[in-house]
Specification:
20 helices, Rossmann fold, Serine Threonine Protein Phosphatase 5, Tetratricopeptide repeat, about 500 residues, DNA Cyclobutane Dipyrimidine Photolyase, subunit A, domain 3, alpha/beta
């Protein structure tokens, strides 16, 4: 029997389960770039550059380590796979279980001329079956419960069976608005090497629709660079990461954020080593616990939770639409020059340029706006998947549909993350240079976040009443005059009609 290994583009780790399952480094290995596969949505050009350049660098590293590597660029996956299987007389093809369900279906439908074996995915701390055992029979599947279980399970930030510092969560210390002069750190970026520049040229010459700009491309594409980004975060950003992790500032692309999600999600970094490095630095340098815990919750809690939940829920999860929203996605999500709302223009321009925005920009501005406007959940999820350099099916379905759009009706979140301009003004400086008035609900200068927020509450009052955490907010809605509510709803309807005609 001859075994062959297919390494997928988000499994670029020398200790991936497929590679460690074979003792012979002469085992044939193949990596494939499929041009047809990336036509399914208009992906950000920098995401294509990152994946293809990282794959080519990883293939070279495997070859240098003695592996028998084949690298193919083709229209599809099937043709190069079949030829490679025939040439190498492969009888068993090993593939590490894909993180995304659609790709599993794609592989199983290839009708290959050999046995296909899926090896359990070891790029996450929680195996799918372990998450299922934890989740089965529970009345709720909230992050906080899972996060506490993860802390105990992997003995992270624990002392004598209790959380270090006496609390599980230091969120209240991590929501400071960006007031005064903030000394923000400089992000670690890289110049493209010859391989990456070649990929940039190829991506810019593609003859099908893409999104964003390929240059300047500054992301890392190797494990060495990814490790350097992690070290930079730990030494330069982590000590003061916590307090302002929710802040947003004009002209600040990255603030104190780690920028490691693109590398974690393709295997250049592992969650185990990230958590170990952060814990070690915390003990060595006596770092502030609110910063350390806040970051660990993102990796050990949120990332693992999203992946586990994605594989736990039914496959029709992406079809859920609790509020029955059906509006098209405003055109300015694809072209930031077509909006005059400063917060949206700032963030969307940033996404076009680098394929990245931090979690509050994503949740409380971009996703929030789509929610209160009434955009069809599938449309905004498709945009997130297309636009972000760290986006994959397992990340975006639960994150955008569950948390951002409340499309699942409360499986993931206990209330919709809907907010007016008041939140954006509190956590950013965007409102200072906007043509709209941050406090107005009606009138010519009323901020769309305001009239859409109250329109959202009015339209869905009946459904929202069933959610206990919304009662206080709904009480505020009842304090508005009927005439004002009518005017608010009319402004919202007019805005939708005008933008639906774009």
């Amino acid at each position: 029997m001859t075994t062959g290994i297919w390494i997928l583009g988000d499994q670029l780790w020398s200790n991936a389960a497929t590679l460690t399952s074979c003792t012979q480094q002469q085992t044939p290995v193949i990596l494939i770039e499929s041009r047809n596969y990336v036509k399914q949505r208009p992906y950000h050009q920098q995401k294509l550059v990152l994946i293809w350049s990282a794959m080519r660098h990883f293939a070279a590293e495997l070859q240098a380590a003695g592996w028998n590597v084949t690298y193919k660029i083709a229209d599809d996956f099937a043709s190069p796979l079949q030829n490679w299987i025939k040439q190498n007389q492969i009888t068993q093809l090993r593939v590490m279980q894909p993180s995304d369900r659609p790709f599993t279906h794609l592989i199983t439908n290839l009708q290959l001329d050999c046995e296909l074996t899926f090896v359990p995915n070891n790029h996450f701390l929680w195996q799918t079956e372990d998450f299922k055992k934890w989740a089965d029979g529970r009345k709720r599947l909230v992050l906080e419960d899972f996060y506490r279980e993860s802390r105990k399970r992997f003995n992270i930030l624990m002392e004598n069976g209790k959380p270090v510092g006496g609390k599980w969560n230091f969120d209240k210390e991590n929501r400071k608005p960006p007031k005064g002069k903030l000394n923000t750190p400089v992000a670690l970026w890289f110049e493209p090497d010859e391989i990456t520049q070649q990929v940039i040229n190829e991506v810019q010459s593609l003859d099908f629709p893409t999104y964003g700009k390929a240059q300047p491309f500054r992301w890392g594409v190797t494990r060495k660079q990814a490790l350097a980004v992690l070290e930079h975060f730990i030494t330069k950003c982590l000590p003061t990461f916590g307090p302002y992790q929710d802040a947003m500032l004009t002209g600040e692309e990255t603030l104190w954020h780690s920028l490691i999600s693109p590398y974690l999600n393709i295997g250049l970094l592992t969650p185990q080593e990230v958590l170990a490095a952060v814990e070690k630095a915390s003990e060595r340098d006596n770092l502030a616990l609110n910063s350390v815990e806040g970051f660990i919750r993102q990796v050990l809690g949120w990332r693992e939770y999203l992946h586990g939940l994605y594989h736990y829920v039914d496959e029709n999860y992406f079809e859920l639409n609790f509020f029955e929203h059906s509006q098209p996605l405003p055109e300015f999500f694809w072209d930031s020059s077509k909006t005059d709302m400063n917060c949206l223009q700032q963030i969307l321009t940033q996404v076009e340029n680098i394929g990245y925005a931090h979690h509050i920009q994503r949740l409380m501005v971009l996703s929030n706006f789509a929610l209160i406007v009434g955009v069809a959940p599938g449309e905004i999820e498709n945009w997130f998947h297309s636009a972000f350099i760290d986006a994959y099916d397992w990340v975006m379905q639960t994150n955008v549909l569950g948390m951002g759009q409340f499309a699942d009706g409360g499986v993931l979140a206990s209330k919709p993350y809907a907010a007016s301009a008041n939140y954006i003004n509190q956590m950013s400086d965007y409102c200072k240079n906007c043509v709209y008035e941050k406090s107005d609900r009606t009138g010519d200068k009323a901020c769309p976040f305001n009239f859409f927020y109250w329109d959202f509450l009015a339209r869905h009052q009946e459904k929202l009443q069933s959610l206990g955490r919304m009662n206080l907010i709904l009480a505020n809605l009842k304090r508005l005059d009927t005439s004002e509510i009518k005017e608010i709803c009319q402004k919202a309807d007019n805005w939708r009609k005008n933008h639906n005609n774009c």
